[in-house]
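Forgive a beginner's question, but would it be possible to get any protein sequence you like and the tokens describing how it folds?
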Amino acid sequence: MDIDKIDDVKDLRNYSLKAHNTFGIEARCQRFLEYATKEEALQVAGILRESTLPYIIIGGGSNLLLTKDFEGIVVHSAVKGIDMDNTTVCCGSGEAWDDVVAYCIDHACYGAENLSLIPGDVGASAVQNIGAYGVEVKDLIAEIEAVEIATGQVRHFLNTDCEYAYRQSKFKHDWKNRYLITCVMYKMNAQFTPHLDYGNIRTELEHRGIAEPTPQQLRDVIIDIRRAKLPDPAKMGNAGSFFMNPIVSREKYEQLAGQYQGMPHYTIDADHEKIPAGWMIEKCGWKGRSMGRAGVHDKQALVLVNRGGATGQEIVALCEAIRQDVKTHFDIDIFPEVNVV
């Protein structure tokens, strides 16, 4: 691997991305650029404008599936720092998201407790609209600072500019690979209002004899629930929840509810329901099964795992087999939450 320096920008050639994807898949890129400040992001934007190579922008790699070497430039943020002004928390895009949750609780800023232990970086939180246990980060994001690659201008986007929806944002579609995010500002709450009515949060609290949890107690419960269901990527490669939970019409939901007594669901509005993809995958018999070196986690069917040495193509093949079974059994299409490259 050759190492160059363009001012202070990290510039690496023939670079292994194994440490940058939680599936632990070996793939290389032709060039790897990493910026640690807004000024370095401006330099990287200039490099990208002048280059003829294709490029992609990655975060912590917890939502990434590499299927081959990337014959182009991979860009990554290493912008660090967390600052607070009352309940507005400004975070560098390279900060680990879970460190931000811990920081907020320590500084009496609330609202992110249910998003504890979600892997990935701050910048990716704003792109993916991460969510868990009834909470989405879109409800906390106030403003995003980013460098526009085409112009080299520093832009500021309000929450309403980003067209957030379930696991969606404009950064994933119209603005994909157009901006280098440098900072995300979250508007937290001074008052702690726990969200306990999703999943088995209340049950776990009851087991611990906790009727009214503190913010730290709620965070601890969320962390323990996630650890019980999700494998440690350091021990078994995975990207957490691989599929998005499909939102279906009330008519479709009622049809399935008539066939499957006790089918879990979450009401979106008067006309739509969300059905857990993991439940459908388990009903199709995939929980704990493998196809070669790729498999479905035995504790959570929503999680695909690298059982050791799997390629990205093997995981894609498993994904497609599962999607086909769910379509056959339920007549519902499920789609990956993970970005396939």
Summary: The longest helix spans residues 312-330. The CA atoms of residues 163 and 169 lie 5 Å apart. DSSP finds eight helices and 21 strands in the chain. The longest strand covers residues 179-187.
